[in-house]
Amino acid sequence: MPDESHGPGGAPLGDEQLSSLLGSQRFGALATGTGGGRPHVSTVRYAWDPAQRVVRISTTADRLKVGRLHEDPRGALYVASDDFGSFAVAEGLAELSPVSTEPGDEVSRELLALRPEPRDAAEEAAYLRRMVADRRMVIRLRVTRLYGTVVPATRP
């Protein structure tokens, strides 16, 4: 139960709780900067690697977020709990992988690892071919700052 002394703003979450929240979700909002100083926000599917403190995001080379991260590698991923009672923000510098160019190359294997579903050999081969055809790549957000809060439930 959250500490009520923090008032309506909520109580800060510890690093372990934040990491757990990031690991429990699959979708978040990635914020990147624009040339004009405004944020660009896009919904992304991601995977959290707590040991390496890296968020991995599958994307295509032609997406706006890729261009923005080429210009300025700073990014932040916002993730909320299922009930929106708590949230985590993972800030860091993005590293962009090369585009997958051959089924089974290092990038397509990294993309394959982002899929949680079990798959057979034929499905895996088709997926690897699709990663090349789609010009897929990986955004690796190397997290340097992690913060968030839990907001107490409103009483009736």
UniProtKB/TrEMBL annotation:
GO cellular component: cytosol
InterPro entries: F420H2_bilvrd_red/Heme_oxyg, Pyridox_Oxase_N, Split_barrel_FMN-bd
Record keyword Kinase present: no
Ranges where the Pyridoxamine 5'-phosphate oxidase N-terminal domain occurs: 16-111
One example GO MF annotation: oxidoreductase activity, acting on the CH-CH group of donors
Keywords assigned: Oxidoreductase
Protein name: PPOX class probable F420-dependent enzyme
